[in-house]
Write a structure and sequence with these properties.
By secondary structure, this protein is mainly α. It has 27 helices and six strands.
Amino acid sequence: MKAVKIILPYTVLSLLGIFFFMTFNGDVHLFDWDEINFAESSREMLVSENFFQVQINFEPFQEKPPLFFWLQSLSMKLFGVSEFSARLPNAFTGVLSLLIIFKIGDSMKGSRFGWIWSLIYLGSLLPHLYYKSGIIDPVFNLFIFLGIYFVIFWFDSQDFKKRFKYSFFSGFFIGLAVITKGPVGLLLLLLTVVVYRLINRTKKMFKFNEILSFIVSFSFVSFFWFGYETIQNGPWFLIEFINYQIELFSQPVAGHEQPIYYHFVVVLIGCFPMSFIAIPRFFKSSESNAANFELWMKILFWVVLILFTIVSTKIVHYSSMTYLPLSFLAALELNSYTNRFSSNFWMNLVLIFFGLIISFIFFIIPYLALFHLDFIKQVIEDNFIKAALSVDVHWLGYEYVFGIFYFLAIVLFVYFLNRKHIITSLFMLIFGLGLTVLFFGKYVLPKIEMYTQGPAIDFYESFKNENNYITTVGFKSYAHYFYSEINPLNVEDSLYLKRIQFKKEAMVNHSVFNQVARKEVQSKVLTWLKSGAIDRDVYFVSRTDRNHLLDRNKNIEFLFQKGGFVFYKRKLIKIE
């Protein structure tokens, strides 16, 4: 009986994670940029058998270390190159995350708290969605969280052997974080430790042998990429990687400039409902039996939020490391609910109001597409969106009910919460969100994607493994690499030789091959594809609002327009 009681939570959470994170996960194409970018780099690892230098378009991609791409490549090797394979590592990470936070919560405050923490995390919007994606951050965040988790015990333990062990595991997981996404993993740990020491005013010091243990384990893990790459190919790839990290923090190199409050809004609205539930915890003193851990989680939350508010490049998932500490604070608040919550009018109102807003978004998108598409075309001024909405998409006619279903689940969640049935309320929340996301992803998202990128992806897929050049004009994309399954160039290809020439010319004006130099090369390659001495047919894909340069080129033939995309071809003229 005791064994069943121990195994039951892990079995239930595993089944919930597998069901919600993996079901229908291959039913919609990957999305530009990040999902397709990462999946393509992983596919190219398999094709080129180069597993230590990340590539895109079979050229060095210095922006990311390789660990996540190893996981995707393994998934693709086992299950084939597909959307499901690209998203599988995060789905598995999601299941693992639920089990880990249950275990931590159980050991800290008992099984009930473990259930509350894992369930509120699973039932919140962005944390749930991220484990159904193909981006790096879920894996990266779990490694950082575990690294900081072991630092907490390393810091507090009085047992020499345990401190040594905790320091080793902290270095191990931070090392994994660094070779997953870069040195920001170590930076977040160091900032969190520094802020904790300043706030707590502790005089405790890490001993030299413990620091050495951290460094050894951190270096051992990091060596699998940093060390091997440097020994095999010299430091040039690492130098360019470090230069990119500096650019990323100092200027919006990814093209994402947002207002300073951007991440605050993303976390507050995107992490509904745990974000709103957690708010009171920021104004309360820590609980005695979890006080220190709570302080660490608050510090980690603010370090991440403030750091990525300062960073010039702002992308929605940059603040995703806040989700785990925020879920802990929400779990503490839920665990403390007594009779006082039944009269908490404002919290009830907030949960219902924002639940209604999110439900409305689930509702209004398919509703407008079903019944008011012509009206939208009339009022929208953007030419690309207007053209995109002209794609003939077959709707079943009831897709808007998923939004209504989610709102009913929120009402039940609040109802059981007020009756102090916390676990029951969380299961209502999980199945409400989980089933809404599943069916929205199955029946709505593929149709929305047909408007946004579907015509272009259909075009790319029609040229799989054909010996042509395909490029985009006027917009950045990675989809043509992945969905046409491009092969690497060789010395007999004209484009291969031209790239070498253009890179040499760019390096005359630039000391390092940075973003500016890279764009210069891309511009010259595009010009050559338009008017140079090509050795293959070239296909161009542009948008209806950005295709004017192609229309003026007499060498390029207009093929057709579908939705917001326009397709062209430049034929190879063979001279007999």
